[in-house]
Amino acid sequence: MSARPIATTRSAAGMPTARLAVWWIIASEIVIFGGLLGSYIMHRLAHGVWADYAAATNPWIGGFNTFVLLTSSLMAVLGHQAAERGDGPRAAKMLYLTCGGGLLFICVKAYEWTTEISHGMTITANTFWSFYYTAAGIHALHVIAGCIIMLFVAQTAKKNLELHRVEIIGIYWHFVDVVWIFLFPLLYIAK
Amino acid sequence: MAETIHVGHAEEHGHHDHHEMSFLEKYVFPLDHKMIAMQYMFTGMFMALIGGFFAYAFRMQLAFPGMDVPFWGVVTPADYNALVTSHGSVMIFWVAMPVLIAAFGNYLIPLMIGADDMVFPKINRLSYQIFLISAIIIIASFFVEGGAFGGAWTAYPPLSTKAQYSLTPIGSTMWITAVALEFVAFLLGGINFITTAMNSRAPGMKMWDIPMVVWMIVIASILFMLSVGPLLAGGIMMIFDQQLGTAFFDPDRGGDPILWQHLFWFFGHPEVYVVLLPAVGIVAEVMTVFSRKKLFAYKTVLYTAIGTGVLSFTVWAHHQFIAGIDPRMANVFTVTTLLISVPIAEMMFVYIATLYGGKITLTTPMLWALAFVFEFLIGGITGIFLGASGNDIYMHDTYFVLAHFHYTFYPIAIIGTYAGFTFWFPKMFGKMMNDGLGKLHFWLTIIPFNLIFLPLFVLGASGQHRRIYDYTNFPELAQPWQQDLRQLATISLVVMLGAQVIFFYNVIKSWMSGPPAGKNPWNSGTLEWTATSPPPHGNWPEGLPTCYRGPYEYSHPDHDKDYWPQNEPA
Questions:
Q1: Residue A127: CA count within 13 A, CB half-sphere
Q2: Which domains does chain A have, with CATH numbers?
Q3: What is the pLDDT of residue B290?
Q4: Average pLDDT over residues B45-70
Q5: Is B540 part of a structural domain of the chain?
């Protein structure tokens, strides 16, 4: 593997390159989810009947998943703390725990969707359910992608290498968390 | 000074271990920003030839209905729809974007800010690979069952979502998939550009020392990033509508077709400025060098560009005046649309002021830059007619609109590209281009271009609607004078396409046997001209430059030479 270009090591803006880039990634993701949720909200305001469809969602499962994601974000913060202290192995352990949270979230989601689909609430049932599966599905893909990246970061962090990456993946994970904080009330709670 | 030495020392560690690279490493999977730029440049030019060929095929059908078009055959109605759709999509997404943003951005940003590469070379490579896959998908869609998508580059539902209307069950999904992948590629590239320009500038290069073209590409990347997201989400919704049977855009089942128009144009209008700004930046570089003057009002141009970017998010519904939007909203969008012509007009005045009193040399790149201002003005002024909602209700979807946006996009994507390519050719290939052939190519491109689109303004004003396969079915649109103008436009197009042979001959001939260019053939002050031509991997193996002043110090009274390079200590 060749050395990094000098360009990567400079920071004329006063912020490490990777952190700067991840904020721009988050900015572009905000617009993607913003477009999707904006469309959903416009539809929702125009169709009062959607409140009845939304009543069929299970806020307890959604609430439990919110709790799981928030806890995993706490683990990511603890991992960042450990990385700041230079304690790579502990940072890696915390990242594995974060991943575990992501995995639990996906499993609960799989159970929830299976139940809903078996009761006839499929993606084509009506436009509310189309938005429900599309928005939560795109979010779930972000959870899965975050977990995979986190496993790579943990592998190197365990050897006390590239510890700055722990913070970067943590910022991304908090973002994924915040998206869910928007999805949960919009899809489950608003009746 | 002590700080400079310190920085220089700290940067020693990053130097590359040089080793001989294999052909695959160097040309197929490169990490070097210049090679990735060349991949984008030549893929974009190849796609431009394909897009031009599409235009040739459907223009022949319009001028000579039912003829057996050489190299294509008889254009059927389905062919016609697929050709116009693909021409628009290819020219915007696979020509203007990769050449103006990705190729020039990749080539110029690290060289002009004095860095050895982009900050994320591997993401850069990934960006091109995703882009290439998207280009292959859009071409491949011509060969699947049902053929390529024919619902126009705007892909309005329900035509685009229901196979029983579009008759292209596979082609329409391939089209939206290719477009979505292309967006992902440019999001990756854009993040790289923004981060590189923000963080990796040469020591001493302050905000106002950054060359204008770098600013413009960065602002364009930010605009792209902030506008494309909703359409990316909309693209996923469209794929679900096509393939899973959801009803996001289907009014019969609770969806809303106008939603797609909003998502599309919320991106589609800023997109005009995404490609315009880099072209404007290229023209700024060329004009200052060939009039030996400082860019007039550097900061004003910059603020204007940012202002244009902000305003461009508030004008999108002027594409939807007849889509049934609230007339009160149409008034609001008329006002914002007319407002946005103010900053653009101001930029054009700044360029004219830059020329004023300068020592102008009419080289090939300078001719292209002047033509940009001249031709874009026609596009801008006709836009004011269309921005007024009352007038647009008559003009909507006529050839007047078509001629208007070709007078904006052609100067951007073709004239701007030629200005930049002929200007930086000596840096890219280390050889000078033949100026005589360059000028011949210039005139044989510019004159036919005007002869294609000026008649289309007249036809459009006389009521000629777009997207009609054969005007002989409409007697009031098939009068002899109208058919004559159509033939004039088509013949001019063939001449213009033929003239591009001169360009490619000139490129290959100059590349093979042109006179060596040396480091700085145009006596320009920006940093890329201090590297060897072409620059090696790492750009400045002897050490990266330090910046001491602004980019446009031409004819400075305190300096004996008529240019003062950015890297020269005071």
A1: 25
A2: 59-189 (1.20.120.80)
A3: 97
A4: 96
A5: no
Q: Which residues of chain B make contact with A20, given a CB cutoff of 8 A?
A: 195, 198-199
Asked if residue B40 belongs to a domain, the reply is yes
* Beta-carbon separation of A5 and B195 below 8 A: no
pLDDT tens for B275-311 read 999 999 999 999 999 999 999 999 999 999 999 999 9
Q: How far apart are CA B258 and CA A148, in angstroms?
A: 38
Q: Compute the average pLDDT of residues B468-495.
A: 95
Residues B432-449, mean pLDDT to the nearest whole number: 97
**Any B CB within 8 A of A141 CB:** no
- ipTM, two decimals, is 0.94
Instruction: Tell me what pLDDT residue B497 has.
Output: 97
Q: Sign of the C-alpha dihedral, residues B345, B348, B353, B354? A: positive
Nearest CB neighbour to B119, from listed A2, A7, A43: A7
Chain-centre distance for alpha carbon B7? 37
Tell me how far apart the alpha carbons of residues A175 and B502 are, in angstroms, rounded to a whole number: 52
CA angle (B218 as vertex; B215, B219 as ends), nearest 5: 85
CATH number of the domain that B267 lies in?
1.20.210.10
Q: How large is the average pLDDT for residues B451-460?
A: 96
Taking residue A104's Cβ as centre, other Cβ atoms within 10 Å add up to 16
Cβ B226–A138 below 8 Å, yes or no?
no
Q: Is B184 helix (H, G, I), strand (E, B) or coil?
A: helix
pLDDT above 90 for B558: no
| B17 contacts chain A (CB < 8 A) | yes
What are the beta bridge partners of residue B69? B73
Give the per-residue pLDDT at B400. 97
How far is the C-alpha of B234 from the C-alpha of A134, rounded, in Å? 11
**Number of Cα atoms under 13 Å in the Cβ half of residue A11:** 9
Contact B232 A35 (CB under 8 A): yes
Q: Tell me if chain B has a CB within 8 Å of the CB of A33.
A: yes
* Contact criterion met (CB below 8 Å) for B400 and B386: yes
> Which run of H or E residues covers position B202?
none
Q: Which residues of A touch B538 (CB under 8 A)?
A: 5
Which chain B residue lies closest to A3 (C-alpha atoms)?
B16
Give B201-212 pLDDT, tens digit per residue.
999 999 999 999
pLDDT tens column, B84-113: 999 999 999 999 999 999 999 999 999 999
pLDDT tens-digit series, residues B336-395: 999 999 999 999 999 999 999 999 999 999 999 999 999 999 999 999 999 999 999 999
Which chain A residues have a beta carbon less than 8 Å from that of B264?
none
In a domain, B169, yes or no: yes
Q: A138 pLDDT exceeds 50? A: yes
Q: Quote the CA–CA distance of B505 and B511 in Å, as a whole number.
A: 10
The verdict on residue B171 lying in a domain is: yes
> Which of A5, A17, A126 is opposite residue B117, by nearest beta carbon?
A5
Assign residue B465 a region: left if phi > 0, alpha if psi is -120 to 50, beta otherwise?
Answer: beta
Total number of domains constituting chain B: 1
Which of B115, B232, B248 comes nearest A127 by C-beta?
B248
What residues 233-262 of chain B have any CB closer than 8 A to a CB of chain A? 233-234, 236-237, 240, 244-248, 253-256, 259
Is residue B16's pLDDT more than 60? no
Task: Give the CA-trace dihedral at B138, B139, B142, B144, to 10 degrees.
Answer: -70
Q: What is the dihedral of CA B505, B508, B510, B512, to 10 degrees?
A: -140
Chain B partners of A9 at a C-beta cutoff of 8 Å? 10-11, 13-14
Domain that includes residue B295, residue range: 26-530
Looking at every residue in chain B, the average pLDDT score rounds to: 93
Amino acid letter for position B95: V
Minimum CA–CA partner of A137 in chain B: B236
